[in-house]
Design a protein that fits this description.
28% helix; alpha+beta; Aminopeptidase; seven-stranded mixed β-sheet
Length: 170
């Protein structure tokens, strides 16, 4: 079984984060961005995460001891008003070559661990309603669906998608 580790992202990780995110954008079905993001756009996004929010990378190590970033996750501002402090929007993306290997489960578990360490009170996930993998993870970790917005967002394939909204009390 492959082992994964996670850590807070730094500037050296931005290209890998950009590449993984853009693979998801171009595949469709998991991002409402319709064109790839640039390195500078992803850098600004990573840098916008100030305590208690953060971006994390997920890594694996090969037999030679070389580490490879295979995914990333983020705790982001849910709504930029002080009354929402303690509520975070979760996001996670996995390199296509590593999907279906437990990386998403590992990532969500670590994000929730970080939420609790950072004294968050609620975690939210905003997911395309037909994203079966992410919906299954939300259910597995005990999230409750609290809303569905029909025909809310288009992805890079031009598909109009419903958005589902999930939360977990921490």
């Amino acid at each position: 079984m492959t082992e994964y580790t996670y850590r807070i992202a730094d500037e050296d990780d931005i290209q890998a984060i950009t590449d993984i995110y853009n693979a998801a954008v171009m595949a469709g079905g998991s991002s409402a961005d319709i064109t790839p993001r640039t390195f500078d756009q992803r850098k600004a996004w990573v840098e916008s995460h100030k305590e208690p929010y953060a971006v994390f990378v997920i890594e694996t190590t090969d037999d030679n001891g070389d580490r490879t970033i295979i995914g990333f996750g983020a705790l982001s501002v849910f709504y930029d008003r002080a009354g929402y402090d303690g509520v975070t929007d979760l996001a996670y993306y996995v390199d296509p070559a590593w999907q279906g290997k437990g990386v998403g489960t590992y990532t969500l578990a670590k994000l929730l661990e970080e939420c609790r360490k950072r004294n968050m009170r609620k975690a939210c996930g905003i997911i395309f309603a037909d994203n079966a993998g992410s919906i299954a993870l939300m259910r597995r970790f005990g999230f409750t669906r609290f809303g569905l917005m029909p025909s809310a967002a288009t992805d890079s394939t031009g598909t109009m998608r419903d958005m589902s909204y999930w939360y977990l009390d921490l």
